[in-house]
Amino acid sequence: MNAGDLVNLIIPIYEKYYTEEDVQGLIKFYNTPVGEKVIASLPQVTAESMEAGQQWGESIAKQVLDDMKEKGYYKGN
Length: 77
What we know:
By secondary structure, this protein is mainly α. It has three helices and no strands.
């Protein structure tokens, strides 16, 4: 395995969305205290956001199923 191969696959994705100036701005930002905080907390923020989204989706699904049962469209449990 060669990490350079992965980098070569990722670069075009970044080029698609960010200019050279954007990347330089991101580098400057991530070198600030708040940028470092974002880097440190992003895994937790992402995990908690995904969990909240999953709970929200489950709630919506339950509401839809309850509504379908109430209207006689769903005969399951």
